[in-house]
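Before going further, learn to read the protein records used in this course. The integers have meaning only within a learned vocabulary of local backbone shapes. The record below shows the convention in full.
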Amino acid sequence: MIHTVPDGFPTQLFIGGEFVDAIGGETLDTINPTDGSHIAAVAAAGEADVDKAVAAARQAFDSGVWSRLPLPERKAILFRFAELIEQNAEHVAVLDAVEAGKPISDNLEGDLPEIASTVRWYAEAIDKVFGRVSPTTDGALGLIVKEPIGVVGAVVPWNFPVAVLMMKVAPALAAGNSVIVKPPELASLSALKLAEIAHEAGVPAGVLNVVPGRGEVAGRALGLHPDVDVITFTGSTEVGRHFLQYSAESNLKRIVLELGGKSPQIVTASVAGELQKVAEDLAGAAFWNGGQNCTAGSRILVHNSVKADFVQFLSEASSAKKVGDPLDSNTEIGPLIEPSALERVSRYIEEARAAGADVVSGGERIRSRPEGLFYPPTVVTGLGQDSPLWRDEIFGPVTLVRGFDTEDEAIALANDTPYGLAATIWSRDIDQAIRMARGVKAGIVAVNGYSEGDITTPFGGYKLSGFGGKDKGLEAFDQYTETKTIWITVA
């Protein structure tokens, strides 16, 4: 296994099939959150660079080199792309481990196999998605067809740099679009490497472009650009609002938002005999990727008859998780992404203690690694619905446990949030599980095991968790296609 950053990784913008410096020469310093060391200076796109990328994407789209390429040929290139991802998996995995602090085992066993299969899945779907013929009289024929939308801007987050990127890029490319990726400024390297791999696979110049840069510059320029047809964004609700404004101020481009979450995890009395198993599952839900995950199980609702035992099992499961160097294959939780994240998590816990919370496990920065941004899995009880731990998306390894007595109370508590992305319900009563799954206002409700579904199921939320389309599943094609009616009058 590779344990250092490979030599020669790309750090320039990727526009029109070439790596190029930013026109203004600006760069972003990318920092290793494990030890604070400098990794690289990455080119930072300005408005002129975004203009250049959009022009390349539009030219490629209009030329038909990809948008009108025969479907078997487009499929073959995407299959080759998936093969090359697998061949370069260790390289890409190390980049995300070093730059984003993601455990190498998560990358190699989860994200990289997942993105290769995502590319294959959408490649295979290319010639399996059909239009429709509407019911008409003998005097007409109504054809309902799907066409690629054109130029897609994909703005992706740092917590799952390659996984979220490919959830957007794979269906957009499969549908025949040109794509411009604005990767996260804290973790751009893997996106640039994937662009290089796509080009090697045969994706034509201009069809996939990557423009690292600051959100307020490159992201804003992409959002305001009149020749971008859709923006698909995963990130904070605050930034999502900006993209809606950019759309309103420009060409009313389609905006697809997948935003934050405060996902409830409900444990009913019916699982009293398997609380250790449930606690281990929900510790994974809460602390996967250090809690830096929009579906993180940051609110756990437990029936009061089993709450005490559950909290004990949850504390044990949380304390057993290994926090450490993301390049260590045994590490389960790496560092937080940047100093402000560590400060934020620490502040929330200090304020919770001052409000009378019981910090059952964790709750203090790991001082044995002062050079790194490490915080342990933290379980808190004893706070009400007015607590910031209950209301706010902390985006760190913190979960709050609260009791309930009735099914209706559990549903009301679960829905007491402006978000609605995901939830988990543990129940061995099938009627109860169905009732509660229907009652929770969230886009994804897992039963008897934390899950976001798989590539076959749509991913997205309700309320402040986003709208405008779904990632994953065949539904993802809807983001990147236009629906056209062709009405033929028959003489």
